[in-house]
Design brief:
Number of helices: 10
Number of strands: 3
Number of domains: 2
Strand content: 5-15%
Strand order of the largest sheet: 1-3-2
Helix content: over 70%
Structural class: mainly alpha
Largest sheet: 3 strands, antiparallel
Length: about 300
């Protein structure tokens, strides 16, 4: 039999078997869909939390160094050059006392307070954009050792907040991977049991094919395709459920917690759809391959 006719036979047999065991198949599709829904929600929550964490990372990765009033401008320029020469620094920006005061005055909440003070009490400052959160601590140490830093409040470094953010990011990553691993195992077991049921109903036909010299993959192919079909249908159903609830959830979240920087990401929706479809196909193929392994070996 030519490869094309072999493939057509496998597809036809898989399609017939898929509907021949409709009750078991539908149960498997629904079960895997629920699992993939949990997996999709897990990915969406992880992506949303990463989106929020990245927004906070951008904020805390900027270190503000307060400059003492009596610091010569030549010392400030030399220190800026030192900072720009570091590999863990992206940019360095200097703001004079007047610029800092004008920036504070642009906020209506500060205007009443500024009207009660005379002169310009705010120090000049240097803003340093670090390449990573880990680099902020090292830059902070260098800044506090600089003689031109304000001795009372040299930097706005928030070491505890940064440490907690990094720890939370690690925990979320491990928890997400652990949940996905559990969901993968459950999905594979469901597909295995579904395919084994199909094998049981076709056991006589399989024995005849083995007696006439059919190869292992000739017998195995229809079951693997049936598993892939089951996985893709389950993934499509799960994707529809997740997409129906994703946008309304983000809108509700934004209205309730407007201060949290969470937004709808259409690009990730496309990526998530591809992930779910690929995951459904792979889970179906893996589960069916394992499920028929001991029954069709020739």
């Amino acid at each position: 039999m030519t490869p094309f006719r072999h493939l057509r036979f496998a597809l036809s047999t898989a399609w017939q078997s898929f509907f021949r065991n409709a009750t078991v198949t539908v149960t498997a599709v629904v079960s895997i869909s629920l699992i993939l829904v949990l997996g999709g929600i897990n990915l969406l929550v992880g992506q949303s939390l990463n989106q929020v964490l990245n927004s906070y990372r951008q904020q805390v990765s900027v270190l503000t160094i307060s400059v003492a009033d009596n610091t010569p401008m030549s010392s400030v320029l030399d220190f800026e050059a030192r900072l720009r020469a570091r590999h863990d620094v992206e940019s360095v920006t200097y703001q004079s006392k007047d610029q800092v005061l004008a920036q504070l005055a642009s906020n209506p909440q500060n205007q009443a307070l500024l009207q009660q003070v005379q002169g310009n009490p705010v120090p000049a400052r240097i803003q340093v954009q670090a390449t990573s959160l880990q680099a902020v601590e090292q830059i902070n140490t260098v800044a506090r050792q600089w003689p031109g830093a304000d001795p009372q409040d040299p930097t706005d470094y928030q070491g505890g907040f940064i440490s907690n953010m990094l720890r939370l990011s690690d925990w979320l990553t491990f928890a997400g991977l652990g949940l996905l691993a559990v969901l993968v195992v459950i999905s594979v077991v469901i597909v295995m049991n579904t395919i084994r049921t199909a094998v049981y109903h076709r056991r006589r036909e399989i024995e005849v094919m083995k007696l006439v010299g059919a190869t292992e993959w000739f017998v195995r192919g229809p079951f693997v395709l049936e598993g892939i079909l089951t996985g893709i249908l389950a993934a499509g159903l799960a994707l529809g459920v997740v997409m129906i609830g994703y946008h309304p959830f983000v809108n509700r979240f934004q209205s309730a917690l407007f201060f949290v920087p969470l937004t709808y990401d259409p690009h990730f929706v496309t990526v998530l759809g591809l992930y779910l479809l690929a995951a459904g196909a792979m889970l179906g193929a893996l589960g069916s391959y394992i499920g028929v392994r001991r029954y069709v070996r020739v």
